[in-house]
């Protein structure tokens, strides 16, 4: 396929013919990457050096993450897991971090691996499978084909934001179609709640009047951003509104659970499988809430509801690892990733001293023990936000530090 300039107004996505679309999109992305590389090679002199520095903000933690967890072909590996697994969530987060870092080469590698190995070669036709790894016979392949909506949301959102920032319609087109599949396959209309995000297409509707939800799967800024980018699809506004209710009503004591159940006529009840625990999933609820723009609808109310989490940290000097969300009884101290996730939340509440203490705790714990995959992800999100590498606007749009200097015309 010949390289052609595909730049222009990315909010007016053309209707692509779905037949053969994936191959064309990959080729277009490769052509765009070639244009970027050619432009970089042609630049020289002090001015070019200064511009290059502004366009690639220093982010040592991202470089460390790539060195420790990212294969040369774009697979995020949960190093230390029994099967060296890859989960779609990890691929989604890596795409987001690569965009924040203006690391387009890594972005394209991660996207290519994700599409080829988790989505049967075409994200416009298949939601990505959530789990890939080595089976008991030593063969590498998809181990569980059920998608996970948290990963799918982040991938769709990041593709749409990348399309804007890098002026690349192939990303925008893929993000648009993927978002449509999410709305069609990973949602349900719950009585009294409306259209609601489910954790995946299968396994979360155990009885005719019962559904299982995961509050951490629905960052309000991501949902709001999808609604902004896809104004013709009213489902995203509905999903944002129901997600706000899920976040508030599953935390009546101010502590977010990993999972909850919704019963028609009864509302939200503690999840029996996880015994109402809030831990490694729920820590992301506070992270996402802390990074909301204060002007986004529902942000202040959510921060107020979850304030007991901040109060606990101020009293004890560290987040808990696990809490019984029905009574506030806690177990153990959270790791460095929990502290990193708490930083934006504490900052949003004006607890700057507590936020600084948690950031220092991250540095201390990381120096003692190298962080694993999930701790590293939480740290990239939390401390990357603290360092001003990115922000979310009230309409969900992503602002990146390099954007003003390097993304071309005003968005």
Automatic annotation (TrEMBL):
This is cellulase. It is an enzyme of class 3 (hydrolase). NCBIfam families: PRK11097.1. The keyword Hydrolase applies. Keywords: Carbohydrate metabolism, Cellulose degradation, Glycosidase, Hydrolase, Polysaccharide degradation, Signal. Coiled coil: none annotated. PROSITE patterns: PROKAR_LIPOPROTEIN. Belongs to the glycosyl hydrolase 8 (cellulase D) family. Pfam families: Glyco_hydro_8.
């Amino acid at each position: 396929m010949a390289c052609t300039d595909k730049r222009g107004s990315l909010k007016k996505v053309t209707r692509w013919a779905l037949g053969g679309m994936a191959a064309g999109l990959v080729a277009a992305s490769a052509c765009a990457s070639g244009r970027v590389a050619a432009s970089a090679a042609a630049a020289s002199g002090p001015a070019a050096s200064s511009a290059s520095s502004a366009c690639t903000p220093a982010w040592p933690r991202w470089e460390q993450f790539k060195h420790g967890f990212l294969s040369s072909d774009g697979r995020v590996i949960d190093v230390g897991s029994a099967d060296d697994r890859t989960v779609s969530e990890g691929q989604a987060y890596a795409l987001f971090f690569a965009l924040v870092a203006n690391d387009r080469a890594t972005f394209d590698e991660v996207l290519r691996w994700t599409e080829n190995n988790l989505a049967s070669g075409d994200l416009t036709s298949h939601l990505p499978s959530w789990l890939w790894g080595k089976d008991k016979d030593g063969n590498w392949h998809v181990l569980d084909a059920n998608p996970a909506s948290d990963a799918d949301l982040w991938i769709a959102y990041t593709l749409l934001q990348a399309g804007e920032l890098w002026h690349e319609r192939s990303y925008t087109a893929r993000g648009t179609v993927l978002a449509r599949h999410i709305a069609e396959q990973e949602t349900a209309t719950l009585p009294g709640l409306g259209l609601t995000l489910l954790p995946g297409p299968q396994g979360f509707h155990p009885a005719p009047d019962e559904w299982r939800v995961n509050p951490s799967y629905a960052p309000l800024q991501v949902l709001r951003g999808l609604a902004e980018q896809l104004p013709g699809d009213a489902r995203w506004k509905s999903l944002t509104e129901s997600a706000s209710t899920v976040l508030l009503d599953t935390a009546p004591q101010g502590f977010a659970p990993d999972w909850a159940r919704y019963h028609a006529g009864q509302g939200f009840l503690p999840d029996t499988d996880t015994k109402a625990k809030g831990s490694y999933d729920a820590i992301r609820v506070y992270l996402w809430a802390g990074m909301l723009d204060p002007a986004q609808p529902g942000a202040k109310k959510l921060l107020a509801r979850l304030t007991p989490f901040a109060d606990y940290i101020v009293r004890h000097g560290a987040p808990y690892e696990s809490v019984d969300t029905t009574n506030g009884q806690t177990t153990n101290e959270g790791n460095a990733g929990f502290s990193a996730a708490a930083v934006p939340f504490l900052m949003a509440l004006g607890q700057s001293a507590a936020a600084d203490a948690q950031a220092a705790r991250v540095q201390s714990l990381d120096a003692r023990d190298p962080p694993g995959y999930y701790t590293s992800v939480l740290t990239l999100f939390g401390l990357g936000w603290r360092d001003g590498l990115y922000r979310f606007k009230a309409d969900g749009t992503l602002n990146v530090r390099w954007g003003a200097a390097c993304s071309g015309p005003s968005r």
